[in-house]
Each structure stands twice: as C-alpha cells, then as structure tokens.
Write a structure and sequence with these properties.
Elements lengths: L12 E5 L2 H4 L34 H9 L6 H4 L3 H15 L3 E5 L2 H4 L10 H16 L3 E7 L5 H7 L6 H16 L6 E5 L4 H4 L1 H5 L8 H26 L4 E7 L3 E3 L4 H23 L4 H9 L8 H9 L4 E5 L4 E3 L7 E2 L6 E2 L5 E2 L5 E2 L1 H15 L3 E5 L17 H20 L3 E7 L19 E3 L11 E3 L1 H11 L6
Parallel strand pairs: 1-2, 1-14, 2-3, 3-4, 4-5, 5-7, 6-8, 7-13, 13-14
Antiparallel strand pairs: 9-10, 11-12, 15-16
Amino acid sequence: MTQVKKGFPQGFLWGGATAANQVEGAYDVDGKGLTTADLVKFVPKEERTGVMSLDVNKAQMEAALKDVEGNYPKRRGVDFYHHYKEDIALFAEMGFKAYRMSIAWARIFPNGDDAEPNEAGLAFYDDVFDELAKYGIEPIVTMSHYEMPIALTLNYGGWANRKLIDFFDNYARTIFKRYKGKVKYWMGFNEINVIALSPYTGGGILSDTENADKLAYQAAHHQFVASALAKKALLEIDPEAKMGCMLGRMTTYPETCNPEDVLKAQFLDHFNLFYVDVLAKGIYPEYLDAYFAENNITIEKTDEDLALIKAYTVDYISFSYYMSLVASSKGGKEMTVGNLMSGIKNPYLESSDWGWQIDPVGLRITLNHFYDRYNLPLLISENGLGAHDVVEADGSINDDYRIDYMRKHIEQMELAIQDGVDLFGYTMWGPIDIISASTSEMSKRYGFIYVDQDDYGNGTLKRSKKKSFDWYKKVIATNGKDR
C-alpha cells in the first residue's frame, strides 16, 4: 500500500526570487551595457492606456537612449548592486534555503556579441554567489529575465534574428564555466511565454515592428534552440548541475460547463503550455502546428534544430503563479486585469489592490496538472502579493494581508505534495521590495523587507522588516508546519 506523503520533504528549498533588472540598479557601473529593461520609462497610473508599461517602440527607444534624466526605474532598482551583503544577510536571517536570482546578460557581455566578457560583471556575481554560500543559501539562476543587451535589438532586431542563438550560447558557456560548482540550478528564459504577449519584454522586438506578433513565434523557436544548446553546454561543463525552464502560468477555467466555454479555456491552456511542451517533451505539439497553419504563421526551423530540442530537454519545470483566469465563448463579460493577460471576473474569488484574482486552490490544481502532464520535478519560482504597504508612526508595517495570501497558497502546496506531486522548492516573489515588472512602480510592494523608495526614486533605500518577515522565518524554521 502506497503511503500518503505528509508535510514538506526534508531539504525543501524555501526562499525568495528577484530579477536583476528590478533589483540591482547600477545600470551604468563597472562596464555594464544598457538593456531592454533600462529603456522602459515610468508611466503614472492615470496616464497608462493598459495594465502594462513594458513595451517600447522605435521612437521611445531612440528617445530613451538620449535621456539620462528621465524616470527609468529599472536603471536604479533598489541598488542591490551595492547592498547585496546587507540584503543577503536579511534573507539568511529569515532562514532562506534558496535564492532565485538572475544574471544581467549585459553585465557579462555589454553588447551581447562582444568577443570577450566583462571581468567586472563576472566578479560581481562571484561575490554574490560567495555571499550566498557563506549562509548556505542555494542560488537558482535565471539567465535571461525580461532583459537583454539593447545592442542586440539595435543591431539585430532581437530574438527574431537567428544570430542570437550563438550569442546566447557563448554567454551560457561563459557563465557555466565561471560559476561551475557555485550554481546547481539554472533556467534559461523567465516566463518564456511572455514573448508572445510582449515581444519586446520577452525577445527585444520593438513593439511597432511589422508583424511583431508573428515574429514572436520565430523568436520563441530561437529561444527553444538556445535553451537546448544551453542544456548541452551544461552537460559538458558541469554535469552535476540542472537545467530548468520557467513559465508564466495562466491557469484558465471555463466560465460554465458549456462545451464551447470548455473549448475556449482549453485553447488558452494550449497557448500557455506549448512552451513547456517543447522544452520538456522535446517536440512541437500537433495543436501548435494547427494553430500556425490557421493563422498563416510560418516558422523557419531546421532538422538540426528539432534534433537538438528533442535531445536536450529540461531537468525540472518552474513557473510563476499569481492568479487564475476565466474564459468564455461569449463576449460582453465583466473583465478583470492581470500582469499580462485579462480574463472574465470570477465571482468566487477576491482580488488584490491591482485587480489580480486571488486563487490559492488554483495553485494546487496547477501543480497537479503540471506533474500529470510532464512527470518532472517542479519548482514554484514566483508567487506573491503586490499591495500598498503603510508604514505606521512607530515604523511597523502590518502586512497581514500578505501573510494571509501566502499562508493559503502554502497550504495548497502541501496538499499537492500529499496528492503525489514532486515539488522541491518555493521561491516567493519577491522577498524585498523592488521595481514592478509590469508597471515599473515601487509602490506595488511584494517584500517581507521594506525599501524606503518611491515611484520617482526618492528615499533613503533603508531596509526594514515587515510583520511578514518573522512569519516567513517561522514557516521556514518549521519546514512549513507552523504557519
């Protein structure tokens, strides 16, 4: 008789996650080149035309390259570049077992196609990894998280150009060799599916490029090949290390049991999951070929590409989970917003300050769905609550809403493990307040650690603990039992 798994496994990787472009700052320090993220200008809420302020067109890019005084929040981050020792010490105080972070490609190769790497950039991450090792914190490293050297957009048109495969392979081999033995867990592209929703964010393709939406699928193919080559290189250089992929999960329910609604939800699920189907199964699914044919999308791919993708699949699957969506075959429904997608309002769920529908049970559904579909170890690499935090007169920040959000999601994680899911880690987003990916705001706060900075860069950058800090410390210390 099979014994039911109870509780979180020994060695479970509790921690937090950030991205270089949202946390590091120091955008022009020690030889770093400009990135696509450095050109995203802050747009006040009242001036936004949608939920995103991530996309950049040619005119905006040209203006941003000349603008040294404008409000480009991802250029400053929260200055982790100069505060990393302090921040990692705070992570260690919470008891972190893992820290998911990213390397800024332009710190290593400022233009992306440079003949030699930038030693100062390599040394910075050496220092970060050594500091993590001092506290026994396992780094989980994303190689490209919503940024790439802007020169690759200027000179090559971004990932729509096949030449980027070789540039990325050179970058991958450089960092694998440099950090061999220091990094056990790698992943290629953050939320790789975002390339179809925001070609600039995911692939460095300017938003006003002709047929940008169709080019995004060609760019995604190039990233699939680059991911396979990265796995190949990792096997050659550091065979003990693991290569994963990362998806922005958009769990979607049909509005009703009307078969037309179910079909709509299934279509959106395919649209979301095909990236992992390719990276984990090593083949393009038939439903994707059908979609391409119906929408007159032609992808140039060689037999060698397909052989590489088949031969070098990922070792584990990671994903972000913040909310669920609802699909209907009929229009005229009340909508809700999300980071990159909108859906019909779910009457059974509450919403965050930013309109994201809060659905802890959906996380258990997602974990079971992924494990049933792929049968690979899973990592929740992002999950958290963006909210307006208030600093009280005594300096305290009572973020009980964040504790409640995370407690409910952790409960569902434990139930999924009991269901039989192989879940090996949880790196919540993000342990310290950073610049928002979607809106470039500072006021949209996720952290257990408050950073004194506003949307316009004003503040002391002083770090202080929120109520959730000690709560998460207790969760980790008891391996999820006391929450």
